[in-house]
Known about the structure:
Blueprint: H1 3-8, H2 14-31, H3 33-45, H4 51-100, H5 103-107, H6 111-124, H7 126-153, H8 155-162, H9 165-200, H10 203-211, H11 215-238, H12 241-267, H13 275-316, E1 338-345, E2 355-362, E3 367-372, H14 378-385, E4 393-398, E5 401-402, H15 408-414, E6 415-419, H16 429-434, H17 442-451, H18 455-460, H19 478-492, E7 496-500, H20 508-522, E8 526-530, E9 542-547, E10 550-555, H21 557-563, H22 566-572
Parallel strand pairs: 3-8, 3-9, 6-7, 7-8
Antiparallel strand pairs: 1-2, 1-4, 4-5, 9-10
Amino acid sequence: xxxxxxxxxxxxxxxxxxxxxxxxxxxxxxxxxxxxxxxxxxxxxxxxxxxxxxxxxxxxxxxxxxxxxxxxxxxxxxxxxxxxxxxxxxxxxxxxxxxxxxxxxxxxxxxxxxxxxxxxxxxxxxxxxxxxxxxxxxxxxxxxxxxxxxxxxxxxxxxxxxxxxxxxxxxxxxxxxxxxxxxxxxxxxxxxxxxxxxxxxxxxxxxxxxxxxxxxxxxxxxxxxxxxxxxxxxxxxxxxxxxxxxxxxxxxxxxxxxxxxxxxxxxxxxxxxxxxxxxxxxxxxxxxxxxxxxxxxxxxxxxxxxxxxxxxxxxxxxxxxxxxxxxxxxxxxxxxxxxxxxxxxxxxxxxxxxxxxxxxxxxxxxxxxxxxxxxxxxxxxxxxxxxxxxxxxxxxxxxxxxxxxxxxxxxxxxxxxxxxxxxxxxxxxxxxxxxxxxxxxxxxxxxxxxxxxxxxxxxxxxxxxxxxxxxxxxxxxxxxxxxxxxxxxxxxxxxxxxxxxxxxxxxxxxxxxxxxxxxxxxxxxxxxxxxxxxxxxxxxxxxxxxxxxxxxxxxxxxxxxxxxxxxxxxxxxxxxxxxxxxxxxxxxxx
Length: 590
């Protein structure tokens, strides 16, 4: 990871940076004039009692101070504007890139890790992009201008003052590399702590910790992570502290050394150095030592921040495995014919095939059920239709068009998903429903809620549709959350519908209410239902039985029961969970 890549972040703001550089150069130029005015005061105006010259020189020094301060304020304003825009661009770029990542990435990455990259890592470079870059240019310009002025005043004093500078630079680079290594470990620990906080202080985490009696253990784990982080902070702040202290001590001693050198030169009969020159030189020396010290400190900060930039660019460089092809076309007037042609899929190149030799036709407007043991590949197969995953071999098409050849937006509008894991934002019911269709009117929202059989409940609440749902919807029961999710899908009105075990976690009474809403939602749509319950699949026009990633049987319920194969075994083995008097297997299988 090179500084050139960091520099490219500032490229869109060349004009503002040009103005900022102009302010910096002007400020640096004005800053070296005062010592020359001071030399004139000491060597000419005061010895010759020239009050007019004295007034002019002192007035010039005052005017320069005021002008430099005004330029400093303008410089800070511009640099912060540019820096915060770069921060915004970087945050947006990371978030946008993560939104493009496939579902597989998020199933293998901790949520706390992702949050840490966006919050801690990008937040950690705030000062670097906001003020440090400007500080580097400003200090370099100041150092160059002051060194030139020092040489113009007296080249011998300048050589004596700057002889140790290369050693200080080398020493600072060594300290910076050490701090960079520590910073990388520190950010990893921050990610671990963010993950622990996100998991253990969510509603689900609190419930699990309390019911399992593990709250003290979670406190112990957090305390351990926090203690390690505190130790790393101490190491980072103390890294090279003695070496840097020696640098600062040398800077403090240098003005006294200049007085000694000038006094020795005069005492030994060398070329006379005027008092005004010595005072002006030490004034300049003070002005050059502080920028040099600041540059050395900034160098340490940049070295530390490079570890953060490395982690950020690591996310930005993640390959996006599901992309919109050039020339992709939108799906229009969708009928809903779904076809899978010899589809093979696995989650990693070296892992076993999750699906293999999958071929199926799902006619428009029909209901197809996917059944099989846990891990048979049912959810993966359905998610391939929505292009949440992408097959390594074969083809998935809708209305004869490969889903890889259509725009992602039109595919998202075509395929709707209702899963067992219902997710609601911590916002009002209305905002959660409108997330599916931002332009929906209140009347359309209420109509969707009626279709999902949740309107009456919402209307009975004191705040109605403006009622907050709480963290992950915990103010509502499982069935109520599920019906809100169904209403959200109704509002989107997709031609193809995937039901991923949408009622498997509900009790019988709630399941019947939700199933009725699902039946209403599925009417007239191409529906792919993943279920363990017999009641959700018995009326399907087609049942696909999966085993070890392959379709081993297909047909209607009656055809598969008569076949007496894998489907019948699932029934008799109670893998389809609600075998009741209403839906009992044939006597021959009982």
